[in-house]
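Researcher: Quick one. two chains, 333 residues in total.
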Amino acid sequence: MTADHSHSPAPTDAHAPGAAPHPEVHFPNWHTYKWVALILAVLTVAEVWIYYTPMKQTRLFAPALLTLSAIKFSIVVMFYMHLKYDAKIFRGLFLGPLAIAIIVLISLLFLFGHLSLHAT
Amino acid sequence: MATAAVAEHHADHHYTSTGLPHTKIAIWAFIGSECFFFASLISTYLIYKGRSVVGPFPHTAWTDPSTGQHFKAILNIPVTSASTFVLLMSSLAMVLAHSAVERSDHKWSRIWLATTALLGTTFLGFQAYEFTSFVHEGLKITTNLFGSTFFITTGFHGAHVTVGVLWLCTMLFIDMKRGLTPRDAINVDVMALYWHFVDVVWVAIFTLLYLIQ
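Model:
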């Protein structure tokens, strides 16, 4: 592929009358996307590799997989969904509901006895 | 005259008082609401995890005491790993399609849009194969709690992927009909956000439903 993948700014050059000027946003280029894809592939391989190792029997198994999954999730959201580069209001619109959803999920797991603060 | 031209320009882009496009704010709000939707499905799966009275089970073999029929562990991790890789690579194709549209590079925008749609369809093919093999191995949506929660969660995700593929095909059709220009980049961006969200939901589902026992 010989095309120049340097990214043009997002189409935020027009504003409603009276709106605060919105700075130009520069999204990542092809090289960043390529490295992100490579990292995602390596992390997926690592997840599957952990699944087939004796680590599966240890207490580190679930935390390790959850950490790798969280890293993959963050990378896609930051680079492919451009949340790292885009307007801050989008972070609020996504991270607010996501935080509430995660809190509700964890609360339900405590409520139904899958997680406990006390050893049984 | 100038005022009319400015008004027409603004009406065309539909910018809000924040200086951000309506469609982009709307898709992020929608994605926020989808977080609740998928969190509720995953919560239900996790709450009922390990509480099925009869098999087949996801990670362990099971023999039906009444019939003596043997059921192997139902999940096929290598196949699901391959489909996960396919979906992750579709996200790469999606960002490259968006980038090509912003450059008015019609050739590459069509190639990457078609590639993304093809990878999405491949993922759906993997899911169809998985669902079919599960049914043949004795796991249906009514078999046990695992079957109900698993098919509902992954089925709804598959429905989202299907919507994404239809959206991609529509965009590809428009691109081939009249060519997508940088003015259309915002529409491709909105579609890309939806597609990447479907991807990150699968990242969570793959770990929570498939890998963690």
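Chain B touches chain A through 64 residues (CB under 8 Å).
Researcher: Thanks, that's what I needed.
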